[in-house]
């Protein structure tokens, strides 16, 4: 089933990439006040509404600092290759970045920091503490709920860990599923907590966030396995974007502090707090090689083999 799902994802990505070549839009347009307008495509993490709430203030802050306007464009993970030619900057996870880098020449600018691992994330496989399980090999014959297919530490990392421990999700699990709709990572955690599934796969920072909000207690769970931390969400720039504009964007993003605010509709908003991040750091393309190797081991895009 994993291979069928991956094949379907790859076909959708390739179809979207083909369509993109005929839908090119100008890099910028001139507003009524002669202020250039550019587009930032933001990966939808939990829901479109949450993405807009988090990043509209961010886009306005960066635009004000640069003397331009930025449109906040929420994009589903599967649609990024279709939309890339209309974007001036991207905000994606690390798996989407290596896909866009390989097929469209997108280059990384900065990585966001949050949680205990900073600019990195770690995929974990968790179960209830009272499940009787303690290691990855205990998953044989059990039920499991994964995060979204293109979430590197919600799906790919856990498949990698399982394969390295002799567990083939297609052959050794009793069944598995991926939740639909919004807030998929939370659904994974709740699915395990309420006993619907024996185990689940999520990024550790999602569990940390829900624990900090007192929605779950980390002490109720046991971690069966985890991958080596890898880079996670980041800003990138397509090749068509002006280099001077990209350099300025990077400078402004890296300089944002927890005290920086933006005013919108009479409300003063702390930019980082609203974006649910702690800050941004410089990062290089080579930092994503660990993600590339993981994608190769798990037969994931952009290195899938049919």
Q: What oligomeric state is this?
A: single chain
Order of helical and strand elements: HEEHEHEHEEEEHHEHEHEEEHEEHEH
Q: Estimate the strand proportion.
A: 15-25%
Using the coordinates above, name the CATH class of the largest domain: Alpha Beta
The biggest beta sheet reads: 7 strands, mixed
What helical percentage do the residues reach? Answer: 25-40%
**CATH fold-level assignment of the largest domain:** D-Maltodextrin-Binding Protein, domain 2
Rg, rounded, reads 20 Å
Number of strands: 16
Give an account of the 3D structure:
By secondary structure, this protein is α/β, with parallel strands linked by helices. It has 2 domains: 180 residues, D-Maltodextrin-Binding Protein, domain 2 (3-Layer(aba) Sandwich); 105 residues, Periplasmic binding protein-like II (D-Maltodextrin-Binding Protein, domain 2). Helices cover 38% and strands 23% of the residues. The strands form 4 sheets. Strands 1, 2, 3, 4, 5, 13 and 16 form a 7-stranded mixed β-sheet that branches. A 5-stranded mixed β-sheet has the order 9-8-10-7-11. Strands 6-12 form a two-stranded antiparallel sheet. Helix 5 packs across helix 11. About 5% of the residues have low confidence.
């Amino acid at each position: 089933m994993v291979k069928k799902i991956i094949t379907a994802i790859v076909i959708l990505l390739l179809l979207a990439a083909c369509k993109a070549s005929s839908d090119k839009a100008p890099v910028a347009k001139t507003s009524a006040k002669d202020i250039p307008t550019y587009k930032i495509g933001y990966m939808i993490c939990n829901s479109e509404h949450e993405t807009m709430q988090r990043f509209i203030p961010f886009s306005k802050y960066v635009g004000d600092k640069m003397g331009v306007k930025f449109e906040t464009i929420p994009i589903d993970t599967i649609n990024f290759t279709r939309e890339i030619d209309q974007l001036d900057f991207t905000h994606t996870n690390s798996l989407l970045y290596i896909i866009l880098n390989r097929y469209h020449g997108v280059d990384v600018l900065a990585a966001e920091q949050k949680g205990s691992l900073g600019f990195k994330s770690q995929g974990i496989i968790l179960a209830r503490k009272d499940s009787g399980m303690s290691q990855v090999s205990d998953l044989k014959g059990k039920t499991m709920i994964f995060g979204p297919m293109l979430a590197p530490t919600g799906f790919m990392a856990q498949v990698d860990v399982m394969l390295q421990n002799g567990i083939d999700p297609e052959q050794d699990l009793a069944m598995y599923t991926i939740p639909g709709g919004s807030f998929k990572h939370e659904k994974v955690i709740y699915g395990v907590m309420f006993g619907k599934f024996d185990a689940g796969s999520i990024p550790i920072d999602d569990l940390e966030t829900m624990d900090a909000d007192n929605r779950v207690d980390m002490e109720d769970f046991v971690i069966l396995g985890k991958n080596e931390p890898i880079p996670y969400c980041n800003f990138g720039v397509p090749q068509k974007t002006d280099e001077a504009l990209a350099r300025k964007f990077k400078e402004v993003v890296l300089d944002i502090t927890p005290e920086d605010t933006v005013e919108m509709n009479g409300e003063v908003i702390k930019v980082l707090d609203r974006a649910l991040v702690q800050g941004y750091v410089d990062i290089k393309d080579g930092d994503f090689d660990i993600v590339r190797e993981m994608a190769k081991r798990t037969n994931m895009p952009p290195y899938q083999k049919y």
